[in-house]
Amino acid sequence: MAAVTIADVREAAARIAGHVTRTPLRLSPHLCDISGTTVRLKLETMQDTGAFKIRGATNALLKMSKADRARGVITMSSGNHGRGLAYASKNLGVPCSVYMSELVPQVKVDAIRKLGAEVVIAGPSQDTAEAAVHERVAKDGLVYVHPFDAPDIIAGQGTIGLEILEDMPDVGTVVIPLSGGGLFAGVAMAIKSLKPDVQMIGVTMENGPAMIDSLRAGKPVPVNEVETLADALGGTIGLDNKLTFDMTRRHIDDTVLLNESEIAEAMRTLFHKDHLVSEGGGAVGAGALIAKKLVPDGRPVAIVVSGCNVDMPTFQRIVGTPPSTATGG
Length: 329
Ligand SMILES: *Cc1c(COP(=O)(O)O)cnc(C)c1O
Description:
By secondary structure, this protein is of the alpha/beta class. The protein is 46% helix and 14% strand. The chain starts with 5 loop residues before the first helix and ends in a 10-residue tail after the last helix. The protein binds pyridoxal-5'-phosphate.
């Protein structure tokens, strides 16, 4: 498959402008204090769908031929890609089906249904959901929009990298939540193309770190999917991974793994200190600094806060107690 380039990311940025929010890169005084350098948060939580995946999904749909759009689109998702695709599909009048595993939180399932997409819960894991997608494609000829391993998706997510460089030209480290690697591959390729000395850090959870296990093994490996607060980061990278594994391997400078209590502490800190609602998968970048598992090199840091779609009872249970670092306000 053809490589994704910075030109693709620039084209994606022009294509999705006006369809997708250009999100703020907001200072976090608390994270500046604890890390001794400037730290800004890229608030993808402010997208219309509460997560960045609307970028790639919108880019893919806008690029698709009229004939393909008329066939309708289908995807598997841990929730946020399905919601992004359902949202873009609704706006463009494209039929949309979203296949998800039983691990996807209800708040994500409900939001996708509300956008008018067909929702199918297909078994215990993303693998079972993907198998069901392939069956349905064979039967009904829908167009599969992969959640991460496709050029238009990677280019769409990469637009975040262009925005970070525009808003923070002196950035030295960029921290990114990592699952299938569409977000990491796109942003890292864009940033390294323009500013090769920026450190790119990928963060994920100890409970099923598919990309990090694969990087260590030197090839895509299966992962045991278990429950985690960072549900958006669940699932494998695909044993037949075409793009994101190689792109991630090429551009990643360091990785951080967080346990469940560190993810909860990140959500708590972002809420109590920055007054931000984030989901577990969205908070892990900040969590790497908070847990002191990432020590910046003194240059300014940008952290992608990738989503806020968390069930409210879960969120309230987690943030109901202040963070351990809290000193008030
Ligand atoms: C999908 C998702 C990620 C990870 O994106 P990948 O492209 O799969 O690596 C991170 N955070 C949130 C909130 C997501 O929905």
